[in-house]
Design brief:
The protein is an alpha+beta fold. 30% of the residues lie in helices and 33% in strands. It has helices spanning 23-36, 67-78, and strands spanning 11-20, 45-49, 55-64, 83-86.
Length: 87
């Protein structure tokens, strides 16, 4: 079995966060993402509501500097109230 492809850091790294649609959820996700990538701009953040509007997908493309940064980012995102999934 071959080794999985390795990520070369730094790089643009897209993440998708899905959770309950609310201003608090949106603010928390954006604040965490900006804490890990202070250069993050609004152009690198996209929002998509679910069909019924109960949930929201937030796609963020941030600059990843290493595997430790990504692990910490995912841990903090998992603690956000209303979170359903991080991809």
């Amino acid at each position: 079995m071959d080794d999985p492809p390795r990520i070369e850091f730094p790089c643009d790294y897209p993440i998708k966060v899905i959770g309950v649609s609310s201003p608090e959820f949106r603010s928390a996700v954006i604040a965490i993402a900006k804490a890990f990538d202070p250069s993050l701009t609004d152009q690198k953040i996209a929002f998509r509501p679910s069909a019924a509007g109960n949930y929201e997908a937030i796609k963020v493309s941030l600059v990843a500097t290493g595997a430790d940064q990504l692990a910490s980012l995912f841990e903090q995102l998992k603690a956000v109230p209303g979170l359903k999934m991080v991809l």
